[in-house]
Amino acid sequence: MGAVLHTLNIRLFPEQLSHIINHADDQVVIVDDTLVPLLARVVGELPAVEAFVVVGDGDASALEGNGNGAPVLRYRDLLDAEEPGFAWPDLDERSAASMCYTSGTTGDPKGVVYSHRSTFLHAMAVQSASMVGITEADRVLTIVPMFHVNAWGLPYGAFLSGATLHMPGPFMQPEHLVKFIEAERSTLASAVPTIWNGILAHGEQHEIDLSSLRAGTSGGAAAPGSPAPTTATRPRGSSTAAGCAPATSAPSTTAASSRSPTAPRTSSSPAASGSPRSSWRTT
After folding, report:
1. Could you give the CA distance from residue 61 to residue 65 in angstroms, rounded to a whole number?
2. Is 235 helix (H, G, I), strand (E, B) or coil?
3. For residue 105, how many other CB atoms are within 10 A of its CB?
4. Contact, 250 vs 118, CB < 8 A?
5. How far apart are CA 239 and CA 12, in angstroms?
6. 1, 9, 112, 253: least buried by Cβ within 10 Å?
């Protein structure tokens, strides 16, 4: 439709959240009904917002007193009112497609804009064997949120390849994530080291099954030393990796992989014989 997608970091302080909405000149805010109380804290400070669109049937009355007369609409009602088909605009590939803002920096959060071209090229890059090699056979679990550099670009790579996209929603605790992976048989997962370390700690106390994972990505700090503890059922031949991608660049700019010391590369190893092996990357 030609609009620019701006994903909001719900973990920011209220004054930072209102700052980035106003700085980006956001005109329509789409919010899940479970997050209405968080948005309501700043709803009176958003003069440029022309409409709030609520996903779900939960109470959204807290948004109605927004001070600038912006209507509160329901996502489902908007869909039901439309006819099939859409006249897609002809856009320059270098025009803005999405934007994200930094967190944890000095001063106010700072924004960066991603073009349609860079997003498409990055989606192709994450399909390559040198990155994570997403294919139509994968089930991609994006634990990292969209406001963190567009979830490292993995949703776009998943859509482009035809892979199944797994989203855990608000259930980010290790026990919930482990159960999700076990039940849905995710093959690729992406999370910051804090999440992975939590899963490892959970695996030291419980039997967990991560055998469906062929690869994992991590970023923002040093990657965990092992993709699964000794008490867990895990893939053979797993490895760790390191990389770098600031918010001001495309999500994945560098990636380097190192094999697990428990899986040396020999003539009989899975890597040498050409069969799949697990890898862990930071982006």
Report:
1. 8
2. coil
3. 10
4. yes
5. 34
6. 1
